[in-house]
Write a structure and sequence with these properties.
The chain is built from 13 helices and nine strands. The chain has about 375 residues and is an alpha+beta fold. The protein has a domain at about 95-345: 3-Layer(aba) Sandwich (Beta-lactamase). The protein starts with a helix and ends with a helix.
Length: about 375
C-alpha cells in the first residue's frame, strides 16, 4: 500500500516542476546566472589592500597632495619671475658699450632738445676739428648782426676760398640773406668769409665773436679760428658743444626756418641745395649742419622731432656719417620714449597714492 503512494507523490512533484518551467521560463536562467556569479566570485582573487602607512587617514593624504601642488606652483612662479618673457614692443636699448661699436664716429652725443639732458654719449668732450658744423655760429651771428637786405662786398680773399662755395664774384655785391642761406644750406666758404668781413672787418676778428657766442651758449670747449671751419691750428670743438650750440640756435625762428629748407633760390638766380640729407632720409628731421675736412673727417649736428619727443644729435670723426646719424636718432627716441613711460608711471603711482590718502583722510573725518 505504501509503494503506490510514493509513486503518486513523485509524479505530482514532477508535474508541478514542469508546470513552473512553462509559466516562468527565466527562473531557470536566473538560477543559472546566479550560480555562475557565485562561481565567478569564488574564482576571483580578493582585492588588494593599499597600505598608506602614516597617511592611512584620507584627510591627511588629501592635505599632502594639496601641499605638493602648492609647492609645484610656487616653484613655477619663482622660475617665471626670475626669467620674465621679453617684450617685443618695448625692447631695452642696446647697452652703451655695445652701441659704441655700432657707430664709426670717434665722438657722439644725443641730448634732449628741451631740457638739454644727455641721453647718450661717446667721448663727447674730446676736442676735435669741427669742420663746417662751426658755421652754425657764422650763420647765427650774421642773422643777429644784419637785417638781410644789406649789400655785402666780396674780397679776393673771400672769393678764393676752397670748396664748398657758391662762386661769388669779387666784382659784385650780394644781399646778406642770400649769403646767409648759402652758408647754412650750401655750406659756402666764400659766403662765410664775405659775411665775416662785412660784420667784423676781418675773418680773425669775426672768429673771436664766434668764440664769444659759443661761451654765451655754454660751449666751453669751442675755440674758433675761421668763419668756415676749415682746418686751423687751435680751432677745436666737441660733440657736446656742437649739440649745445645747435640746440640754442634752433630756438631762433629765422635760423630754424632756414635749416629745414631742402632748396632755396637766391635773388641772383642760383639754386642752393641743402647738404643735410637727413631732411629726406631721416624721419622727423628739423634741421642740421654737415661738415668734412681730412683732419676732422665727417661731422654733423642736427635736431629731430617725433611726436612730443625732440632730440639733438652730434657726431665728430665719422667715416659713415649718415649711418651713424640714423642709428643715433633711433636710439635717442627709444631712450626718450622709455624715459617718458617711466615718468608717466611715476606720476600715475603718485596720483594713486594721493587718491588713497584722500580716501583715508575722508574716512578718518567721518
Amino acid at each position: 500500500l505504501k509503494l503506490p503512494g510514493c509513486i503518486f507523490f513523485t509524479i505530482l512533484i514532477l508535474l508541478l516542476t514542469f508546470s513552473l518551467s512553462i509559466h516562468c521560463p527565466d527562473a531557470g536562467a536566473q538560477t543559472s546566472t546566479s550560480q555562475k556569479q557565485q562561481k565567478s566570485k569564488k574564482k576571483s582573487s580578493p582585492p588588494k589592500i593599499i597600505t598608506l602607512g602614516k597617511y592611512n587617514d584620507i584627510s591627511r593624504v588629501k592635505r599632502r597632495i594639496t601641499e605638493k601642488k602648492l609647492s609645484s606652483t610656487s616653484k613655477q612662479t619663482v622660475a617665471t619671475s626670475s626669467n620674465p618673457k621679453k617684450e617685443t614692443v618695448d625692447k631695452a636699448p642696446v647697452p652703451a658699450n655695445s652701441f659704441n661699436k655700432l657707430i664709426s664716429a670717434k665722438s657722439a652725443i644725443i641730448i634732449d632738445a628741451r631740457s638739454g639732458k644727455t641721453l647718450f654719449a661717446k667721448a663727447p668732450d674730446n676736442p676735435r676739428q669741427p669742420a663746417s658744423t662751426i658755421k652754425i655760429l657764422t650763420g647765427m651771428i650774421a642773422l643777429k648782426s644784419l637785417t638781410g637786405n644789406e649789400q655785402v662786398p666780396v674780397s679776393s680773399w673771400a672769393a678764393g676760398q676752397p670748396r664748398s662755395k657758391v662762386d661769388l664774384n669779387p666784382k659784385k655785391q650780394y644781399q646778406a640773406h642770400d649769403l646767409i642761406n648759402a652758408v647754412l644750406l650750401a655750406s659756402a666758404n666764400d659766403a662765410s668769409v664775405a659775411l665775416a668781413e662785412k660784420i667784423a672787418g676781418s675773418e680773425s676778428s669775426f672768429a673771436n665773436l664766434m668764440t664769444e657766442k659759443a661761451r654765451q651758449w655754454g660751449a666751453q670747449n669751442t675755440v674758433c679760428k675761421t668763419a668756415t671751419g676749415l682746418t686751423a691750428k687751435g680751432q677745436t670743438s666737441t660733440a657736446r658743444d656742437l649739440a649745445v650750440m645747435f640746440r640754442h640756435a634752433m630756438e631762433e625762428p629765422a635760423f630754424a626756418e632756414r635749416m629745414k629748407q631742402v632748396k632755396v633760390k637766391t635773388t641772383y638766380g642760383t639754386l642752393l641745395r641743402n647738404h643735410n640729407k637727413a631732411l629726406w632720409q631721416v624721419e622727423g628731421t628739423q634741421g642740421g649742419k654737415t661738415g668734412f675736412t681730412n683732419a676732422a673727417r665727417q661731422t654733423y649736428v642736427g635736431k629731430f622731432k617725433r611726436g612730443d619727443c625732440e632730440i639733438v644729435v652730434a657726431v665728430m670723426g665719422s667715416e659713415t656719417m649718415w649711418n651713424d646719424v640714423k642709428k643715433l636718432v633711433q636710439r635717442g627716441f627709444a631712450l626718450q620714449n622709455r624715459s617718458s613711460t617711466a615718468s608717466r608711471n611715476r606720476i600715475d603711482e603718485g596720483q594713486g597714492l594721493h587718491a588713497l590718502a584722500s580716501v583715508s583722510d575722508a574716512g578718518q573725518r567721518n
